[in-house]
Amino acid sequence: MLLFYLNINLLWAAPADELSSLLNKTIAFSGQFSQSVYDNKSQLIEEANGEVVFKKPHFFKWIYQAPHQNQIIGDGETVYIYDPDLSQVIMSKFSQSKNNNPANIFFLNNIEEYFKVTKILIEDEIWYRCESKSKDIDYQSIEISFNEDKIHGMRVVDSLQNKIIINFLNILQNRNIDEASFLFNVPDNVEVIRN
Predict the structure, then answer these.
(1) Is pLDDT at 5 greater than 60 in this prediction?
(2) What is the pLDDT of residue 96?
(3) 11, 102, 148, 189 from 17: Cα distances, Å
(4) Are the beta carbons of 29 and 172 closer than 8 angstroms?
(5) How does the annotation summarize its subunit structure (predicted)?
(6) 10 Å Cβ neighbour count for 167?
(7) Do the beta carbons of residue 156 and residue 102 sit within 8 Å?
(8) Residue ranges of the alpha helices (H) in the chain?
(9) pLDDT at position 47, please?
(10) By the number of CB atoms within 10 A of the CB, which of 26, 78, 88, 133 ranks highest?
């Protein structure tokens, strides 16, 4: 009976270990992304695309190119959300944005501490489903797929059952990325909102 119990624990632990290994291999990556947002009735709300850059321990950039040219940039201390159409920058402390940003999963060292991880099959592709152990997170689950150890896709279900599907393209992994490229200079004549 004890042996059976131990074997079950090993089976449950395996997906978290696999995902941790894949994430630990990813020190930095850059490429393009396409994003589709669906409501809780699976109706398409919005499509977008752009460029993405990540570097551990805590640097990231989402540069939306269409349909709107928004930017989300994190320099490790501050997260900037820049909307040129509104001439507005929202600034938040990096520590405050963690619960709102599913992409922070890339920065975790011990994923099993924060998420229950299971392995699932979607359209003949292996995905890792991560369900938060905390009630303070603004989303229900994150699903991540890899292709040849490179991040390939991401699906996020938020607290309202909306779904965000992101496909990553032309990913360059573990190239040298200058940390200075994550610095954001607030443009002149824009409204600055500090959270």
Answers:
(1) no
(2) 63
(3) 10, 19, 17, 48
(4) yes
(5) Monomer.
(6) 15
(7) yes
(8) 2-25, 94-97, 111-114
(9) 96
(10) 26
The confidence score (pLDDT) of residue 55 equals 95
Domains and CATH numbers, the chain: 2-194 (2.50.20.10)
- pLDDT tens-digit map of 161-189: 999 999 999 999 999 999 999 999 999 99
Cα separations (Å) of 11 from 5, 7, 119? 10, 6, 11
- Listed in sequence order, the DSSP H helices in 94-151 are 94-97, 111-114
How many residues are recorded in the chain?
195
Per-residue pLDDT of 65-115, as tens digits, reads: 999 999 999 998 999 999 999 999 999 988 766 566 788 888 887 888 888
Buried b (16+ CB within 10 A) or exposed e, 132-164: beeeebebebbbbbbeeebbbbbbbbbeeebbb
Tokens of 11: 């089976």
CA 158 to chain centre: 13
Q: Taking the mean position of all CA atoms in its chain, how far away is CA 55?
A: 12
CB 170 within 8 Å of CB 32: yes
- pTM comes to 0.84
Structure tokens at 72: 């989300």
Tokens matching residue 19: 């995902």
Centre a 10 Å sphere on the Cβ of residue 101 and count the other Cβ atoms it contains.
18
